[in-house]
Amino acid sequence: MVRIRETPDDEEFDAIIRELCERHGFRLYVEGWSRKTYDVFTETGRKNTEHLMRIESLAMTNGEIQLFAPTGEVFALELGGLLESKFDVEEAVIVRDDAPEY
User: Fold this and answer.
1) Is the N or the C terminus of the chain less surrounded, counting Cβ atoms within 10 Å?
2) Any domain includes 53
3) pLDDT tens digits, one per residue of 33-50
4) Which residues of the chain have pLDDT under 70?
5) Is position 92 within any domain?
6) How many angstroms separate the CA atoms of 1 and 76, rounded?
């Protein structure tokens, strides 16, 4: 199996999302290794968890943030600003969408 070494941008992106989740009191689930998917949830209890947004690691270049619930809007706006200031993103885009079915 061939693996590609992560770049410092990946580590910085990880740290930014984790810090925002901690500051806002949200729960973060990360899937993937080289192309990661970040799912952000509320931490309101086992049965009342709400899927707020999904961010792909590609957001470092395309600036796209999928927003599923208004509760995550402030987080998404903060993240968008950080994508524009810290990465080569001209304009971050928040896409309002329905949360995926599980």
Assistant:
1) N
2) yes
3) 888 999 999 977 667 789
4) 3-8, 45-46
5) yes
6) 35
